[in-house]
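Bumping my old thread because nobody answered last time. Still need a sequence for this structure:
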């Protein structure tokens, strides 16, 4: 016996231009039928939250699946899988497509070479699938945009839920972020962690989907933007604060990556705040509220 619920969608060409669209969603549990052998022309993320089963790749290799786990089904790759008849399993699946899948694959969020991925905590992906299922109600005028946005959320949740991932993020990335604005080279950052530059590149690429140089640059430029928008520090002082002793080099780099010069960026923001912005992240569940002004007199 098994139970299944599913919906399928056909986004318009205009929605396809958003980069990522949801083609279907399903929730199933029990002794489900075997799937395949088959080959698809789009991606599917199958999140298994209870039970066990198996996956057989195109070369005949059989992999045991024990929940919680993720199955990546990628376009053009034959696959064959199913739950064990004695246990069954609980699964949810999301079909999706779009040009953004290529970038997510390059960043390591989608892993065609790892069709079976162990998950540490499936609650985040399950919540994202739930949002897609709720959006799938009949007559929802926001269906294609709402479900497409939730697929982005699902991919992030799946990346975070991988087994072996630290709950507070990768420790190497945490250390790099902490020291990003110090005037250190990539080789010097690597030495601080007892790693070679090649080992650091591999670790950062695996955790963040980019090179250490790009990861550090993103943090530095983000901090520079905050200082330009919220303070009246000269550009040279901002450059030094984020690790650049040469303000001219900093300005060229900022202009090339941001698309506008530091001075122009500051003019566009116009948000100088005495003392700078708060560095405390507000609690979304308990946001700060404005207190009513006291009456005069």
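Sorry it took so long. Here it is:
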């Amino acid at each position: 016996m098994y139970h299944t619920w599913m919906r399928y969608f056909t986004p318009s060409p205009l929605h396809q231009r958003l980069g990522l669209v949801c083609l279907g969603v399903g929730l199933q549990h029990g002794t489900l039928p075997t799937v395949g052998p088959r080959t698809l022309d789009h991606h599917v993320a199958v999140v298994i939250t209870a039970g066990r089963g198996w996956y057989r790749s195109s070369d005949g290799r059989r992999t045991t699946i024990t929940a919680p786990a993720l199955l990546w089904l990628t376009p053009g790759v034959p696959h064959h899988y199913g739950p064990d008849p004695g246990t069954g399993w609980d699964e949810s699946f999301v079909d999706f497509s779009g040009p953004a899948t290529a970038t997510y694959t390059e960043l390591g969020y989608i892993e065609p070479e790892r069709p079976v991925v162990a998950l540490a905590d499936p609650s985040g992906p399950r919540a994202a699938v739930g949002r897609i299922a709720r959006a799938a109600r009949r007559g929802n005028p926001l269906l294609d945009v709402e479900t497409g946005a939730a697929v982005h959320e699902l991919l992030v949740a799946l990346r975070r839920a991988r087994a072996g991932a630290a709950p507070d993020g990768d420790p190497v990335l945490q250390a790099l972020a902490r020291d990003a604005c110090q005037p250190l080279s990539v080789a010097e950052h690597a030495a601080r962690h007892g790693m070679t530059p090649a080992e650091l590149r591999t670790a950062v690429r695996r955790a963040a989907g980019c090179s250490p140089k790009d990861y550090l640059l993103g943090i530095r430029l983000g901090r520079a933007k905050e200082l330009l928008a919220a303070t009246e520090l000269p550009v040279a002082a901002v450059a030094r604060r984020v690790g650049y002793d040469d303000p001219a080099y900093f300005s060229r780099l900022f202009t090339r990556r941001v698309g506008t010069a530091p001075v122009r960026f500051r003019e566009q923001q116009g948000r100088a705040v005495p003392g700078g912005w708060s560095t405390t992240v507000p609690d979304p569940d308990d946001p700060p509220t404005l207190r009513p002004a006291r009456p005069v007199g």
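The chain has a mean pLDDT of 89. Let me know if any region looks off to you.
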